[in-house]
Design a protein that fits this description.
There is one protein chain. This protein has a domain of 138 residues. The protein has 202 residues and is an all-alpha fold. The longest helix has 31 residues. The protein has six helices and no strands.
Length: 202
């Protein structure tokens, strides 16, 4: 789809819902601190869009799971990531529906409960992201096996960022030799030069 396979699509769809859900909870907290209902209204709609985006991200993740080559270690982390993602989606899905239906009629106690569940949802959201990061950065999930093997071979060859400096140093030495003539190799047999030969070190 648009040049993406399922793992890449899942990665592309993750960031926006996370940002929106975090922003929604932040707006709700600002509403409590500032006593401005406008922040609560923004929080409701931000949470709605974030929950819809989260549902799309979860669905793409379930598809990605079927297309990723992995062993037992990756599978265990993947299962935990999936469970946390589903719990996060359930929490924010229920909160969104609750807010849409009850937003204008919530009392102080109900609103406090809603905000508390939002904070719990953020905890699950962060945990989901942590396990997603483990999949990518600790287990290279989503990278095809042949690509990973090629990368390992490349890394064993080594790569030096000071290679350019070494080339410059060699070039500088060559220029110095040309400036003062030439340097004979150690142990070179005796020889003579024509009168117009520039000075050099034997």
């Amino acid at each position: 789809m648009f040049g993406y396979d399922w793992p890449r699509l899942h990665a592309a769809l993750n960031d926006l819902p996370v940002a929106l859900l975090l922003a929604a909870v932040l707006f709700d907290l600002l509403a409590v601190v500032t006593k401005r209902p406008s922040f609560r209204q923004v929080g409701v709609w931000t949470m709605l869009v974030g929950a819809v985006g989260g549902a799309v991200a979860v669905l793409s993740g379930l598809e990605a799971e079927e297309h990723i080559s992995h062993g037992d270690a990756v599978h265990r982390v993947m299962e935990t990531h999936e469970q946390l993602g589903l719990i996060t989606l359930a929490v924010f899905g229920v909160l969104t529906l609750w807010r849409i239906v009850r937003e204008r009629r919530m009392g102080a106690g109900e609103r406090a409960l809603s905000l508390g569940l939002s904070v719990v949802g953020v905890g699950f959201l962060v945990a989901t992201g942590v396990y997603g990061g483990k999949l990518v950065f600790e287990h290279a999930a989503g990278i095809p096996t042949e690509v990973l093997q090629a990368e390992v071979r490349e890394r064993t060859k080594g790569h030096h960022h000071d290679a350019g400096a070494a080339r410059e140093e060699a070039s500088s030495d060559s220029a110095a030799i040309r400036a003062r003539g030439h340097v004979d190799a150690p142990g070179a047999p005796p020889h003579s030069h024509s009168p117009d030969t520039p000075p050099h070190a034997d």
